[in-house]
């Protein structure tokens, strides 16, 4: 890690991931500065989800390091990483189908802070007060994502777009400092996508750093402070949306998918 990288920056350095003979990621190096929306883009199979898996401890890299707050995340478990505030959502929605919307978020709040919750109970000597606090926090999160009117619905009966919002609410309940979103707008209609964009900005404005993987280039170009471009497991460019749109290597990597798409 270079001396210039602040302690609260997430820094991926020289990471490689091998699956048998396939080098899914090679020599991947990039930073996610605190307080920004950084997007990780690249064609299908470029290594974006694999990068998320490495950062959040679901996969050990073959080599390299991921540091955050002075810790090497590649040495920690998924739950230790989440407790440090590095929290993800999945490319496919994962929710508790049989739970209500409200209970899903309350459960996610409980999972986060077992120690914190018990500590608070001991301090206040009141389970009821602590339960009140958690319920208020769940309501606040559901209000933020726009599901406050769906509290009592069973999660499995929500529309697809609402299920994506619930998955996001559950990730927010884990109290992220950095939130990694894997294709949050996949399968959403244009108005849902627009709302999701505003929501991501609102999350950033609450002080949560966002690392976004997304194929919707209009969304990426509109909301990113910075973009990192992967191709064949390597970072080929990094910069502002304007720099990336005009970068010859990026244009070349995306030619197969249509450049007009990149320019939104
Ligand atoms: N568990 C695994 N075992 C073997 N190969 C894998 C595994 N996970 C990913 N790969 C391969 O690694 C490469 C990168 O995959 P990855 O899922 O990270 O791509 P991606 O950029 O997220 O693509 P997409 O945009 O389609 O989601 C691909 O060639 C993929 O087939
Ligand atoms: Mg992926």
Give short descriptive properties of this protein.
single chain; 264 residues; alpha/beta; Rossmann fold; 6-stranded mixed sheet; 4-stranded antiparallel sheet; 11 helices; 10 strands; globular; disordered C terminus; binds adenosine-5'-triphosphate; binds magnesium ion
Proportion of strand residues: 15-25%
Q: Which fold name corresponds to the CATH topology of the largest domain?
A: Rossmann fold
Q: Work out the helicity level.
A: 40-55%
Total beta strands = 10
Order of helices and strands: EEEHEEHEHHHHEHEHEEHHH
Number of spatially distinct domains: 2
CATH class of the largest domain: Alpha Beta
CATH superfamily of the largest domain: P-loop containing nucleotide triphosphate hydrolases
- The separation of the N and C termini measures 35 Å
Q: Which strand order spans the largest sheet, edge to edge or round the barrel?
A: 6-7-8-3-9-10
Q: How would you sum up the major sheet?
A: 6 strands, mixed
Tell me briefly what this model is.
With 264 residues, the chain is an alpha/beta fold. It has helices at 48-55, 78-83, 101-112, 114-124, 127-145, 160-173, 190-205, 217-223, 241-245, 248-254, 259-262; strands at 10-19, 22-32, 37-41, 63-68, 71-72, 86-88, 178-182, 209-213, 226-231, 234-239.
Strand and helix map with partners:
Elements: E1 10-19, E2 22-32, E3 37-41, H1 48-55, E4 63-68, E5 71-72, H2 78-83, E6 86-88, H3 101-112, H4 114-124, H5 127-145, H6 160-173, E7 178-182, H7 190-205, E8 209-213, H8 217-223, E9 226-231, E10 234-239, H9 241-245, H10 248-254, H11 259-262
Parallel strand pairs: 3-8, 3-9, 6-7, 7-8
Antiparallel strand pairs: 1-2, 1-4, 4-5, 9-10
Helix pairs in contact: 3-5, 3-6, 5-6
The structure holds adenosine-5'-triphosphate and magnesium ion (MG).
Residues 19, 22, 24, 42, 44-50, 91 line the site of adenosine-5'-triphosphate.
């Amino acid at each position: 890690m270079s001396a210039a990288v602040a302690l609260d920056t997430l820094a991926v350095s020289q990471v490689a991931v091998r699956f048998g003979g396939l080098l899914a990621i090679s020599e991947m190096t990039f930073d996610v500065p605190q307080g920004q929306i950084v997007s990780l883009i690249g064609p299908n199979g470029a290594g974006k989800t694999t990068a998320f898996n490495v950062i959040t401890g679901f996969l050990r890299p073959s080599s390299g390091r991921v540091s955050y707050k002075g810790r090497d995340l590649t040495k920690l478990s998924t739950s230790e990483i989440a407790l440090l505030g590095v929290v993800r959502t999945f490319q496919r929605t994962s929710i508790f189908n049989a739970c209500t919307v409200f209970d899903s978020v309350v459960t996610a709040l409980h999972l986060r802070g077992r120690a914190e919750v018990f500590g608070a109970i001991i301090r206040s000597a009141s389970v009821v007060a602590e339960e009140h606090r958690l319920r208020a926090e769940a309501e606040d999160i559901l209000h933020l994502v726009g599901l406050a009117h769906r509290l009592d619905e069973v999660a499995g009966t929500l529309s697809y777009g609402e299920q994506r919002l619930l998955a996001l609410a559950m990730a927010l309940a884990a109290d992220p400092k950095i939130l990694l979103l894997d294709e949050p707008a996949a399968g959403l209609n244009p108005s849902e996508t627009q709302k999701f964009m505003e929501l991501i900005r609102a999350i950033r404005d609450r002080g949560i750093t966002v690392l976004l993987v997304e194929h919707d280039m209009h969304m990426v170009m509109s909301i990113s402070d910075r973009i990192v471009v992967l191709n064949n497991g390597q970072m080929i460019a990094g910069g502002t949306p304007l720099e990336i749109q005009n970068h010859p290597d990026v244009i070349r990597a995306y030619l197969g998918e249509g450049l007009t798409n990149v320019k939104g």
